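Dissemination and training. As part of the outreach component of the grant, students in the summer workshop were shown how a complex can be specified as a set of sequence lines and then modelled as a single object. The example used during the hands-on session is reproduced here so that future cohorts can follow it. Participants entered these lines:
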Amino acid sequence: MRTSKAPRTRLLRRTFAALGLALLVTATGSSCDTDRTGPDGEGAKIVPGVLRVLASSELTDMEPVLDTATRTTGIQVRPTYVGTLDAVEQIASGRADKEYDAVWLSSNDYLRLDPDTARRITAETPIMTSPVALGVRPATVARLGWDPAKVTWSQLHRAVADGRLSYGMTDPKRSNSGFSALVSVASGLSGAQSALTGSDVRRATPKLKEFFTGQKLTSGSSGWLAAAYGRRDDVDALVNYESVLLSSFPSGELTVIRPTDGVVTADYPLSVLTSARPEAKDAARRLTEYLRSPEVQERITGATLRRPVVPGVRPASALARDLRRELPFPGSRAVADGLLDAYDNTLRRPSRTVYVLDTSGSMSGERLERLKTALAELTGDFRDREEVTLMPFGSAVKKAEVRTHTVDPASPQKTLDAIRSDAGKLSASGGTAIYSSVQEAYRFLGRAPGDTFTSIVLMTDGENTDGDPATAFDAFYRSLPAEQKRTPVFPILFGDSDRGELDHIAGLTGGQLFDATKGSLDGAFEEIRGYQ
Amino acid sequence: MGFREHAARVRRILGIVLAVLLLGGVAAVLVTGGDKDTGTATKTVRGVIGSEKAEFFADPQVVKALAAKGFTVGTETSGSWDMEELPLEGYDFAFPSSKGPADQLRAKAQKQGADTATTAPLRPFYSPLVVVAHSAAARVLAGNGLATLGPRGTSGTLKMDAYLAAARADRTWQQLKGSAGHAELSGTLFITSTDPLASNSGALYLAAASYVADGGRVANDKAAVTRTAPLLRKLVQVQGSQQSGSDAPFRDFVSGVGNPLVLVYESQVAAQLLAGRPMGDLVVLYPDTTVNSDHTLVPITPNGRALGELLSTDPELRKLVVRHGFRPQGAANEFTTATDRHAAYLNQTLTGVRQAPVPTGKVLREMASRARDQGDTA
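and obtained this result:
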């Protein structure tokens, strides 16, 4: 087993501003900016009265409340949305100190496990709470004969093991809802009576493995997860914050289940960076006071379906009032990281990914070098049991250079070295056959369907010049069996590639576009890891 | 018992003496500095405070009362023990929740050039540690001999001996009679406290527990710490990740999430009661042996000192201190009068509540770090 790593954080900065609820409600499309290198010029600038906040992506739903806050208090919040656990590295590395005044994440639990990181924030003030729960299709609840108020983690496990329940969940390394769910189910299935320990996790491993066979969807963000869920009729449930489940599916499309043997709850502490200017700290304090006033708390619970933290303010009527045991969050980094490591390398279904890589003539020189460097860096991210295929193409797929490796848990390093070595041998020649090559990737994956998360990453630096046109690809995709249609394509905008072409592929296949023209190629590859 | 009563009396007398001295000091400031500070001239002071005092300093009436005395106060919050990590430059005062961190902050301030007389600590008010519970949890504790409840069932006494025995035995809620049918009452029975290395209330919880566990002795050396270390470790490790300030666990509790038993300052509850907020099914349990949090202001500059003196002596500010749930040092009647309508929740005179003395900062730190230490649990 490799040594555990802190969840990596490549940042999805304003990325998720567009996602979050916006995506669910207005279906704005599938594009996604990878704007991660250097300050964006706007976020870093200090403007009097403006509070620069690094915020969890699902907090987009607080914008109307924050607009009113500006009118009342004069404090303008400039949020930059990120995946919760991704924010931790920005804070830990000190980069957040340069660009932000405050941090508003769903939870500081993970952050707090590292004393050096914990010291970088202060004045942690919870604003509202929401437990991580399961939203299950009412038909499934009926089929399983469940009383939604009385379901345990063991029952959920049993239903999955019997093949009667499947679900989508975010990647625990990138998103707090996924991590909270992982802690909850590990506690529930190990029978731990207090904070999780490494031996609890080991004891529960067989059951956890069974439970995660039911995870049919993974995602780097809760916004994309809900959208992907909407495309699927074979997934019975979603794991997410109670507030997101209720807001995203307001007509009772999902029945919210908070398992009776315990939940992990996010309490959204608005916190200031220890390094922030005194005026910014004052502004943050005044903002929290405003957000904690009974009238605003009432508005928050009504609008966002999170629970108020002020006595006398009643939770919105959609929220069940019966109490749940709060499962303790692990008290040490070793336990938390051990759990994440086990999830990646042992518990979850493995991934099968085809990297369709443009190595046409236009890639020669600096672009090809950047691709090689990015792939070499990405290699460190592959999980045990994962199948990785490099499929370079020019005027057609370069069949002689297609290589497939499966990361061997017994000696992962050997496989990773081999992938790195193959990436190093790529050479640039020929035209750009985007659509034909992606079809090739689908055919490759279809040959040996298995119990895996399958996806295709498409990296190209130009427009389609060879092989099939877009229309032929569309027809091909539509002719695929339902099972294969579920494999999404994640295109990366790079060099002179055509945003319209790539957006279309992402939209058609249920993937998402990542933009490496503003950020870096390795950043885009890394972000996509959350979806694989 | 005699020792404690004596200590309390001495403290009360000292408090009065101090108050008189301070009154003189403030009068002197007013007389000598009066000419310079006329009209709109105000002193702007900045300080770092424990999170439980944030609402006090933010209260518009407090702001007004301070302004009337020529002060504009800017604050930011931090765990009491974490304050030491902050750079003290630019602050006029630090206001942790007890003596231990205050002593260390004072030493640090002096090292940075502040003078001895300026930094002499002031203790304008205090608040005992209590445990809040939802009524179902309180009733189960009472039904199993771990607590007694008052006639209204909204306040009571937590029996520390019985509670520590349950903790030693890893007792779970399921093992207690009457817990069936309450989903939240399962898992190991424990009180949620804050991180004792970061925050005062968490450290004081350990001080009270070690005092009870060691037969009413205050830990004063390594051997004493060693005697109770396994139990204290248990009390902390069971909780997993801990918050760094007392506000957050209280808010989680209010929100209906979190552990059924949460250690908070009495002031946090009293402030809500005095603000007229409905408290739902909240029950306040006073541990039969508890620790008072002596909110201790460490002046770093003369202006910081003047603020501390004002808080201790100004009648209007003392009234506001009470409104935020704190007990001002000295005469008790200000608190009891103000909270008369809330006697069902509050043990106004702290009847039947013993005060455990607090070990020195150094011993307390040792206790906390041994309790938090992850050791072999992974």
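The CA atoms of residues 240 and 445 of chain A lie 30 Å apart. Students were then asked to discuss how this feature might be tested experimentally.
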